[in-house]
Amino acid sequence: MAECPSRIQENTERHRPQRAQDSGDRYRSQRANVAQEEDSGDYLFSIGETTSAKSSDIWLVDSGATQHMTCSKKFMRNYKGFDAVDVHLADDGIVQAIGSGDIVMSMKTPQGMKKGVLTNVWHIPKLSRNLFSVGRFTKDVGPVTFTKDGCYGEAKGTKWKIGAREGKGLFKLQMTPVAPEQANAAKSSGCQGGTKSYLWHLRLGHIGHDGLNCIVTKNIELASTYLR
């Protein structure tokens, strides 16, 4: 994870200050921008207006959104519901988040196809598009930089193109959500011994599976000797 995320210019003047609705209200305020055609300070990824994709499959990236947000649960893992939270949109509309989960994203890097996980993605059923938060990405993963031809993400020393310029202030998203069953199948096929083996693989600093199996085998042998 990068130590020094780059600054992302935000056009905050267009938004109302965050505030609780009243002292007895159980809702908290959050914020999300919406895609704008004018040349503003917000950088947005877009699939493009000519695509035939359903709105629930379209991702926009918003430099003003406080969280990653999705209108559908279909790509989520580890989903948890919570008390409704108000999210204020740039057009003064208000929608409510009712849960959160993780979404695995697939992307092309100089080292080939890689996967990453967007954690704590908010579920907002009435949101018209999915929002990728640039601010959250730079805080949790690494910097995002914008050039004339596209935008780039950086993490663990790897820099890769995550968006190609689609129009005025818009970029075509080059990350794809992975269905939970596909993500789980990939994880299982890459780790011998199933979920428990994978967890130990992480706990032991990503030790190779041959080394992990050796440790497991020796521990089993020692346990058998001790119990005799």
Automatic annotation (TrEMBL):
Pfam families: Pol_BBD
Domain Retrovirus-related Pol polyprotein from transposon TNT 1-94-like beta-barrel: 59-139
InterPro entries in the record: PolX-like_BBD
Disordered: region residues: 1-35
Superkingdom of the source species: Eukaryota
Name assigned to this protein: Retrovirus-related Pol polyprotein from transposon TNT 1-94-like beta-barrel domain-containing protein
Source organism: Peronospora matthiolae
